[in-house]
Amino acid sequence: MAAKTAITPTRADDYPEWYQQVVKAADLAENSPVRGCMVIKPWGYAIWENMQRVLDKMFKDTDHVNAYFPLLIPLSFLEKEAEHVEGFAKECAVVTHHRLEAKPGGGLVPAGELDEPLIIRPTSETIIGASYAKWVQSYRDLPILINQWANVMRWEMRTRMFLRTSEFLWQEGHTVHATAQEAMEETMRMLDVYADFAENYMAMPVIKGEKTPEERFPGAVNTYTIEAMMQDRKALQSGTSHFLGQNFAKASGIKFLNQESREEIAWTTSWGVSTRLVGGLLMTHSDDDGLILPPRLAPHHVVIMPIHRNDEEKAQVMEFCHSLKAELQAQQYSGQPLQVHIDQRDLRGGEKSWQHIKKGVPLRVEVGPRDVASGSVAVGRRDQEPKAKAFIPRAEFVGTVTKILDEMQSGLLNKALKHREENTQKIDSWDDFVAYFTPRNADKPEIHGGFALSHWSPGPEALEKLKDLKVTARCIPLDGEKESGKCLFSGRPSPQRVIFAKSY
RNA sequence: CGGGGUGUAGCGCAGUUGGUAGCGCGCGUCGUUCGGGACGACGAGGUCGCAAGUUCGAAUCUUGUCACCCCGACCA
């Protein structure tokens, strides 16, 4: 007997567990033998590849180029920028040896101790800075606009698939500019690229904002973020763009001669998004039947499931399927040919169909003898009930498929946007604030809270008061209306509201 | 690093007062099925985390050890 929902528990019952179950049911990833690391399985990786493809094009369209810098960084490099050390020292994996030797009685022991330990990059500002220091001599060498796709490692205490793993995949842009203004423009340009990607490809609405000093990237002058609201109303920091000022340029010695032949210290930025986005995608759209993928990032847009009982039927059905696939693939969707997969596996129809539902494939098409005879297809949409099936003429489906996908894409964005709006409110008293972020059932907290827009001014008060609530300032919205008020925590004047939320 | 817990088949688990290993799922074969998560029969699969001890006999008791998980500080 089929369960009511494909995923147990449901989101309402136990959101974190639901998340894990969707990762598993959608075959995105699994735990690895190494603590905190994950194996990204083909379906999960295909989503990441699509993200990469789109982002990479956006980077190149904004004049960036790709390069690659080493995984291992001399320990001394990290030490160069004081705040940076402070921020990352505690989570660095350190390589101290370069050889293994057989141990008497079996096993291997590290040997060949290194003179200087190497760290596995938690981020690459310092090692890239060393190269940039050599590459930059003159104002004519600027700007440098480089991105790298890489893995990094941060020895996290608590990990969660995609959202926080010890090793994760990301891209990190590192740019050098002659002036503060140029670097600042770059910082904002890339923040806009991220917001564009999140909303128009992931269908995940985000709020662009500046981080409060406590939440800044170690060593940055300013950190900007895109913050998204997940279905449990928690915030997910989905991408960051940092204006590093001259901090790292000073530390790495990135200097140039300006047009007046005077030496100047350069201005740098860095910006990144990671495989965390896959987790964000999941938590933004998926339901109690599994993953829901926005069509523009789905590895397959359409899965065709042939149905037949004997060889004769099979021949006719398969011919129909292959020609349908060819017709569909001839169409462009979101800058590439429509991705169509024929699932011919020897599985029961129901089982097969549910697998694709759980994996979030936007459109499922069943083709059986009846369809071959009538020239129709049976279409199921992932944004509708699992059992809803529309029998429509084949030509009509072929003619409207991209329109349907666009409709699904915008439907997802609108739904997510509505969810965020419904769970965002202005809060002006501390009591209301506490009530907003306190679950009614303390033992088994229900989904509660959301984004609180409250007045805030810099200072230690907020951090202190928020400690027990597990709420943090997510960002100072960039396009928030200017509205003066009194800081909820210190009572000092505040020029605008800040977003507070529980977060991942 | 503090507090709590768990290690038994690929996964999830049971295993009583010590007596020589079991269930569900999954997997394989065959049959009936198949347009929405099928059913039956048969079958494969285990140094009971590791080590020492007690005992005629240890998954079970003792000691040690290792690993992992959960709760806190850290975070794309």
Brief sketch in words of this structure:
The chain has 504 residues and is of the alpha+beta class. It has helices at residues 15-25, 42-61, 75-78, 82-88, 125-135, 180-200, 247-252, 276-285, 311-329, 349-359, 369-374, 394-422, 430-436, 460-466, and strands at 29-31, 38-40, 65-66, 72-74, 94-102, 108-120, 144-153, 167-177, 207-210, 222-229, 235-243, 255-257, 263-265, 267-274, 302-306, 332-333, 336-337, 340-342, 363-367, 376-381, 390-393, 424-426, 451-455, 472-477, 482-486, 493-501.
Element layout with pairings:
Layout: H1 15-25, E1 29-31, E2 38-40, H2 42-61, E3 65-66, E4 72-74, H3 75-78, H4 82-88, E5 94-102, E6 108-120, H5 125-135, E7 144-153, E8 167-177, H6 180-200, E9 207-210, E10 222-229, E11 235-243, H7 247-252, E12 255-257, E13 263-265, E14 267-274, H8 276-285, E15 302-306, H9 311-329, E16 332-333, E17 336-337, E18 340-342, H10 349-359, E19 363-367, H11 369-374, E20 376-381, E21 390-393, H12 394-422, E22 424-426, H13 430-436, E23 451-455, H14 460-466, E24 472-477, E25 482-486, E26 493-501
Parallel strand pairs: 3-7, 15-18, 15-19, 22-23
Antiparallel strand pairs: 1-2, 4-6, 5-6, 7-8, 8-14, 9-10, 9-24, 10-11, 11-14, 12-13, 16-17, 19-20, 20-21, 23-26, 24-26, 25-26
This protein binds one RNA strand of 76 nucleotides through strand 11, strand 14, helix 10 and helix 11.
